[in-house]
Specification:
By secondary structure, this protein is mostly helical. The chain is 73% helix and 0% strand.
Amino acid sequence: MVSPSSGTNNVTPNDRYQTGDLRAVGLPRVADRGAATEAINELFLWVESFVVDSINWYAREKVSKARWSRFLRISAVLSFALGTVTPVVAVGMGWSQQAIWGYGIIGIGACCVAVDRVCGFSSSWMRYVSTAISLNRHLVIFQTSWPRIEAKLARQPSSESFSEAVQELVNFVDATSLLMENETMAWVSEFQSHVVQLESGSIPALPQRNQQ
């Protein structure tokens, strides 16, 4: 992943993921920073650190999702394999009555798959990885194109050039925020789908409060 520039310490939104959840952060005050190039560079550093923090959050959060996903999936595979072999071995050893334990072991594997689906460990892992990769690609492209924008502003320090540079930053933030929004909406849709399946399947409907 791309690391933030050395000058981002003054503008990094340090509290953005302080508790593991997304938090709002304030825009740095750049109105009285002097030259237009200095002001726009301050905005760039803030925007860059904003996206870097988001990438790091996805990269950090995917670790626990990956561990749970691997554990549940491997447990399911082993349970299915053991549950399939158990009746054969039991009958071969003359323990016909113990052959039924194979179904219970297979049931444990099915429970592992169900827990993974309901909690979304595997799907979240894949979403986090793909979102982090997409954010990183957008960040690298923008970082490599920013010197051109900054050089143009240095050559032509006009209000029009400043506005164009600000618009580039706005477009970049909008594109990266859309990626995070799509990932969040995918999670919401998946969670709602699982809730509906559970309520329509094995979980009874919650009692309705009497309308007064």
